[in-house]
Description:
Elements (H helix, E strand, L loop, with lengths): L1 H7 L1 H13 L1 H16 L6 H26 L7 H17 L7 H23 L4 H20 L9 H8 L1 E2 L9 E2 H19 L1 H11 L1 H6 L4 H27 L9 H12 L11 H19 L9 H19 L11
Antiparallel strand pairs: 1-2
Helix pairs in contact: 3-14, 4-9, 4-12, 4-13, 4-14, 5-6, 5-7, 5-12, 6-7, 6-12, 8-12, 9-10, 10-12, 13-14, 14-15
Amino acid sequence: MTSQTTTQSPAPARRFPQWVTTLAPVWTLIALFAFFSIASDSFLRPLNINNILVQVSTLAIFATGMTFVLLTGEIDLGIASTAAIAGMVAAQLFANQKMQEPIPLIAGLIVGTLLGLLAGLITTRFRIPTFMATLAVSFIGAGLTTYVSKGRTITTLPDAARFLGSGRIFTDETGRGGFPFIVIVAALCLLVAFLVLRYTRFGRYVYMTGASKTAARLAGVNTNLILIAVLTISGFTAGLAGIVGMGRLGSAQPDPVPSYLLDTISAVVLGGTALTGGRGGIPQTLIGLLIYGTLRNGLDNIPEIDIYLKEFITGVVLIAALVVNVVFSGKSARDKTSG
């Protein structure tokens, strides 16, 4: 009896630390929110909270697809170029080919989806790591964007793209106020992805593939098909983000926005989704997005901080948050024999 009590007693002790560390990203968000609320008089104003949501909305669309990819233990380095070519194709067809809506937007989404599909086929058919396959696709997307645009910015955009990126609903009689539609688009993307990952067989297969491809294959999962699917999803969401971002900026740019890639990966990983796959999900991505948006916006609302130091401070805080969120919250998933 004594030996049974001794072997079973550690279980409650382990459960509490695991519960605490799993919520590490939430503690990070609360700490940042509390700090900036005290340090800045304007941070908690409704207009500024609205600005945070708008600022992370395009990133949220990117992050939706990236979450699927990272959950399988893979990565997509082509999302910025995919977004650029999707937006440019839509703008080019509307402005220069005079195609009526919604054909330009559909064409842009198809191009983005096909680039994701191409990356998936390269990865699975030729057994090339996604790191290299999606990097190659990123060059294809960037090259096509330069070719289609001839190096020129296009400002004549489809009205639907402008509405998706900068339109508002529930405005007053004068057309002022209202709620940004881009936030609704981002929320719908996250919601659909959450439902798919949580309640569908495909979602379970995504997690199984990320946890162990070998075990998933032995269980009858077509892991190659799963990889193709998640990269195709990432291509679609990148294309959608490119069109929405184009509408928000008011122009289609001839060059990809390089920060899209790093910002997206940072936001997803900050929330606790593992780069090694099998752990995380849309709720974690949402927390990561809010951490990233709060940090960026909060620094802009403290005038005492030197503008030339903001990137440095952002990097330092992100490293600290990653140490807390990824390493600390990942302890339970690592080999206990490693100490």
